[in-house]
# Entry
Amino acid sequence: MVFAFTRGSFGVAVGTMVGVAAPLAAALAQPAPPSQGMPQGVPVTIVRAAPQDVPVVLRNVGLVQAYQSVLVRARVDGTLDSVNFDEGQEVKAGDVLAQIDPRPYQAVLDQAVAKRAADEAQLANAQLDLQRYSELARSNFASRQSVDTQHALVAQVTANIQGDQAAIDTAKLNLGFTRITAPVTGRVGLRLVDAGNLIHATDATGIVSIAQIKPISVVFSLPQDTLPDVMQSMQAGKLAVSARSANDQTELAAGQLQTIDNTIDQTSGTYKLKAVFANADQHLWPGQFVNVALRVRDLKDALSVPSAALQRGPSGMFVYTVTPDNAAAVQPVTVTQDDGKVAVIATGLTVGAQVVVNGQSKLQNGTRVAPSAPAAPKPQAS
# Structure
């Protein structure tokens, strides 16, 4: 350390610390060292564009319908004696659901049977008379006219017997209609009429409805532009259909496309499709709205990025890419398909391009970035 002494105007010695002042000034003039661990740009998350097999999926809202739906009605008039089902019960085709008082129809059947017996007795007598007249006519003891008349009587009584048999068949049929059976297998709804009521074949309300829900169907619509692609894929085999919850997070059932409607709705430019689901766990119910996903085909080795990377600008879709010197670059792209999770890129990217999937709100073309890979998903506790 060096001290310099000078004499002032009053003869007082003044000392200056020359050895301290110079190093201090030099230290203040140097820039501060960079802080350790601080990022040098906007933190972003990146992934690399890579080829993968991506399913082509068409989506829309569908309406669940019973595979078969029947309103059970009475086919004859009468008093409803009994109702033989519980509301909500699973029934099979042929099960007896209700019973109408059969006694009036049994009486009609008995009358028809008695009428046929009387006509059969008359036919037997007429045939004997015809035989007698024929023998007498051969000996010229009876006219030919009497023989012909007897022939006509036999034919008339025979026709009466045929009419009697038709009446018997009708009476048996009406008697059988007093036992109301399930025409299809399914689940019965709420009872529409109680035992003891007088019901008619013309009643519009019916007795109960039956809905077949195992299997069950879903009807949905798609734009007409997708029809050629769907038709071509159907020729190759059955197409998979998924029914999902309203929030599209849960798959309720998996099934197959059954058929396409034969017309296109001119007012909306859409066509209807029908899918069938086994519905063994009964997650689908008639009248329910579901999100339908129809898997048409798979795009092999399609260049893909997460849908979160896509941005929309005045000129169309674009993504932010990261250059080798860690700068953001706006890259216009053409998207073939975007299902909300994976976007298929037709043009604009190459395999291995680093694409920003998080942090785009702070980026512009040329912004310095601090890229990092997405965090691995945490293992779920068992």
